[in-house]
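Ligand: adenosine monophosphate. Inputs:
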Amino acid sequence: MSKLQIYNSLTRKKETFAPINPPHVGLYVCGPTVYSNVHLGNVRTFSSFDMIYRYLIFCGYKVRYVRNITDAGHLTNEQGEGVNRMESQAKLELLEPMEIVQKYTVGFHQICQLFNLLPPNIEPTATGHIIEQIEMIEELLKNGLAYEINGSVYFDVTKYNQNKHPYGILSGRNIEELIAGYRDLDGQNEKRNSIDFALWKAASPEHIMQWRSPWGMGFPGWHLECSVMSTKYLGETFDIHGGGMDLKFPHHECEIAQNIGTYGKQPANIWMHTNMLNFNGQKMSKSFGNSILPIEMITGNHPLLDKGYSPMAIKFLFLQSHYSSELDINIKGLQDAEKGLKRLMDARSHIEKLTAKGTTISDIDQQIESLANACKSNMDDDFNTAKTIATLFDLATIINSLKDGIINNNQLHSDSLQLLKTVFNGYLIDVFGLKPMEENTNKILDDVMNVIIQLRKEAKDKKDFMTSDKIRNELQAKGIQLKDEKKWRHHLVYLTQMMH
Ligand code: AMP
Ligand code: ZN
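Predicted complex:
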């Protein structure tokens, strides 16, 4: 039996997974910053960790999955400008910062549901852990690794680095290069060194989100919340810490420095980084203006798209590449994913209709067994979903041949039939979190919608505009547009999925 191997970004090699306290596993993943809608790139990262979480459960581990909500403003945006994202958005939308937090947290949860992502066991918020963040800063000050200036507190990177703790251990950067290349963006030149990062920032009076601290009114630095919340719920050292590749530096590097500075040890044994979703060859990002919202994908309401794609087809596209590879999104990929998913889901439903009459172990039985084992060893090889899907396609070919009588059912043993069921349900449904019922729901809805469209057409033909307008308006009130028949279906799919 193979053993789970995971690529550890910290050691830069694949390692055999050995949890600290088996069968328990502590998994921490950096969650979303809730100042805007999550885009499809964010969804890819959270889908990757959902698959990882699900596979660990599938392997029999008892996982405590912690994923935070960043609801206190970041200090810098992706261009490095000093902004408080929650507050800027609040001003833009004329809402309270906490209304922004609530609005986008709810939106994030709805997207997770649509993509069938399991909720974490704990979903702590940065604003709910201000006291613990202040306590960690006090520890760092006591350990001589932080300094206060004008009501702000900074982490002293050079001092930390002198204490035998290389800063840059995760991202492979060296401190001299970092100092040379750094622009001082959030320190207003008050830091001792440009690479020092904020643990606490003094707030000006007009700043809305601020808290009392031993250093005056202010707010915590972004990196601190993850150090505090991961160790609070998973211990000073836990099994896996994850996030998107773009968080490796500075976010995770700073987290490591904060944890070592406070507790003298690395927070996580394994650091996992998932790769980016690109669009037009560039990382999908709100600030690059190339982000696509999940809802745009589902409704087909985007210039890139020929039609809407179901969340499951989108997720299947993600799973067809390894979590650590970059993925470019395009129509061809989406169309292929839609077809591929249908082929596997169809094969899964055909299994139910197969009968097994084999009395001895045939070649087919052996092939099924070895392909089933391959699924496990592919997943054990650093969660290779792409290879696992390819193996499921091979199994689907056997299933189709059995269904069509190309392979006789006296070559199929009942144990193999059972194994087919276990593999398809186990990997497609449990590990990949793909939902089969969508197809049926769509079929019924398609039929109902066709009846409604026909009734409206008849009303229009009879010049009964009162009825035809009533049908259009009432559907519109439910978010379904009839004027463009290409799109109504996807509005409908979206609505029905929101209800599940
Ligand atoms: P944020 O809300 O910006 O902190 O991002 C939430 C998560 O999404 C982080 O783990 C990011 O690394 C990840 N992320 C951001 N952009 C992309 C992208 N284009 N592709 C994949 N993951 C992304
Ligand atoms: Zn984080």
